[in-house]
Amino acid sequence: MTFPLGFFDVDCREVNEERNGFTIRPRAAPLAPRLERLYALARERSFPLVFCSCLGGRLLEEGDIPEVLYIPDKPERREWEQQISSHREFYLQKRRRGDPETNIALQAFDVLNTNANAARLFKLLDVEEWIVFGNGFNACVNSGARGLLKAGQRVCLLKDVTVMGAAKYGGTEESRLRVIDELESLDVRTTTFDPFMASLTP
């Protein structure tokens, strides 16, 4: 089955304290109304929603929430492939490599590079265009969009459904604009929330 759209949420959600659902990361809280509408749209239209969590937050553990298909990062783990058709939400495992500075230095945030099954998941889902949004724009969202391109996927970035990374890690307005220009030069389509939602209205 080919899907016209899929959503890739980079680091906006984390598992809640009870580990039975998800909450929005504090840094992404200003985006909450738009995020909730995107999540609702994915459910209503059965669009795939792929997501990962910030290494600074609570990471989902395998088996926590059965209705979300957990995609492990080890290449020898392929049993999840048989379960794709029965799920619409997919969680990409990330691993902390140490303190925040170490995670940045080792680019542990780059889930399409560190999770050996990520690119295969996106391929198997057979989505015509991935709608990308998220938290930590200059590093996490940027690497996610580039990883999708490298995996041969079409990408659309929702520019106003993003949160800049911390300034000490290069998250500035100047870097945001530079990254957008770079992504557009790589043929990433860019738009904003309201026109995107309007485009889906009959």
Structure characterization notes:
The chain is of the alpha/beta class and 202 residues long. The protein has 7 helices and 9 strands; from the N terminus they run βββαβββαααβαβαβα. It has one domain: Isochorismatase-like (Rossmann fold, 3-Layer(aba) Sandwich). The strands form 2 sheets. The chain has a 7-stranded parallel β-sheet, with helices on both faces. Helix 6 (173-185) links the parallel strand 8 and strand 9. Helix 5 (137-150) runs parallel beside helix 6 (173-185). The chain starts with a strand and ends with a helix. 37% of the residues are buried. The mean pLDDT is 94. This is Isochorismatase family protein.
Topology, number of strands: 9
CATH fourth-tier homologous superfamily: Isochorismatase-like
The major beta sheet can be summarized as: 7 strands, parallel
Structural class: alpha/beta
Helix fraction bin: 25-40%
Strands of the biggest beta sheet: in what spatial order?
5-6-4-1-7-8-9
Average pLDDT works out at 94
Organism: Kolteria novifilia
Protein name: Isochorismatase family protein
